[in-house]
From TrEMBL:
<dbReference type="InterPro" id="IPR040921">
    <property type="entry name" value="Peptidase_S66C"/>
</dbReference>
<keyword id="KW-0121">Carboxypeptidase</keyword>
<dbReference type="Pfam" id="PF02016">
    <property type="entry name" value="Peptidase_S66"/>
</dbReference>
<dbReference type="InterPro" id="IPR040449">
    <property type="entry name" value="Peptidase_S66_N"/>
</dbReference>
<dbReference type="GO" id="GO:0004180">
    <property type="term" value="F:carboxypeptidase activity"/>
</dbReference>
<comment type="similarity">
    <text>Belongs to the peptidase S66 family.</text>
</comment>
<feature type="domain" description="LD-carboxypeptidase N-terminal">
    <location>
        <begin position="15"/>
        <end position="134"/>
    </location>
</feature>
<dbReference type="InterPro" id="IPR027461">
    <property type="entry name" value="Carboxypeptidase_A_C_sf"/>
</dbReference>
<dbReference type="Pfam" id="PF17676">
    <property type="entry name" value="Peptidase_S66C"/>
</dbReference>
<dbReference type="InterPro" id="IPR027478">
    <property type="entry name" value="LdcA_N"/>
</dbReference>
<dbReference type="InterPro" id="IPR003507">
    <property type="entry name" value="S66_fam"/>
</dbReference>
<dbReference type="InterPro" id="IPR029062">
    <property type="entry name" value="Class_I_gatase-like"/>
</dbReference>
<feature type="domain" description="LD-carboxypeptidase C-terminal">
    <location>
        <begin position="209"/>
        <end position="325"/>
    </location>
</feature>
<keyword id="KW-0645">Protease</keyword>
<protein>
    <submittedName>
        <fullName>LD-carboxypeptidase</fullName>
    </submittedName>
</protein>
<keyword id="KW-0378">Hydrolase</keyword>
Amino acid sequence: MPIRYPAPLVRGETVAVTSPSSGVTADERARLDVAVGVIEQRGYRVVIGDCMDGATHASAPAAQRASELNTFLTDPAIRAVIPPWGGMTAIDLLPLLDWQAITAAAPTWFIGFSDISTLLTPITLRTGIATLHGNNLMDTPYLVPDGLLGWLDIVTRDTGSSFTQISPGRFRAEGWDDYVTDPDVSSMTLDAAGSWTRLDGSTGQIDVTGRLIGGCIDTLANAVGTPFCDTATFARDHAPEGLIVYIEAADEDALTICSRLHGMRLAGFFDQASAVLVGRTAAPDAPSMTQHAAVVDALGSLGVPIIGDVECGHVQPYLPVVNGSLGRVRFADGAGSLTQTLR
């Protein structure tokens, strides 16, 4: 069965903002307003939901967050949904989503990363609807470096179109911008040099094709092995080409990431993988294991190419990935590219 892509977002259409996980504090609201303004300047309407409170770890009770997300994903007047950022407990929405209604509705772009991948990936796996693992709303004001695209560049593309992204060759070494003291910040501090790294020990050229799927290890691992993260059925129904699986660590130490990846592999999450992309991370190493070594320890036995330090994680800049799109990864002599085709 073909992947279903949302229609391209066009000027005058509506983007909805909701927080399926963590909300926004009063001190952070100025940054939210700046980010909304960037979308409006592109010619889109923005509606902000009720689930936005940043006082605790979740913006509202699970039932309310699920109801609002269900409404936004199935309302034909809303053409894209984006949260301010992630959090930790989006997983509590999975049994509360109206899967039948989401599947029956015209597809809507759903964008985000970090804990939001705990929702994006199951939606693509269960419904065959493409979702976008990319910049969250609060990242939207940043200027996009050469070689990469922003989420607003991707959701306007026609089904059947292709686009290629490459590493800009630099990244942020540490830290985050302070949105409270500088809500208007729009330039990334990319103060370190680095590109993609091959982790699996081989040195030959890579040219691999497969359907893209993946997300944040720290949160998505908790859904793997449940009916919400069935990559085998997805591959059978939608991905005869196999899968290119991308993963990224947010902030858990290397030993914890290693353990989580072993669990994901044993649950079959990587069984159809023809390659694995690993996001660059600032998460800590352990005394006896680096983050790179954690990936190799858990996934080296897959016998597929593993490329590390891809810009698909929490370290700026961001390389958006469309879940369900047909990906082609090419890598040689330390340089790589990812081409995504929306078909």
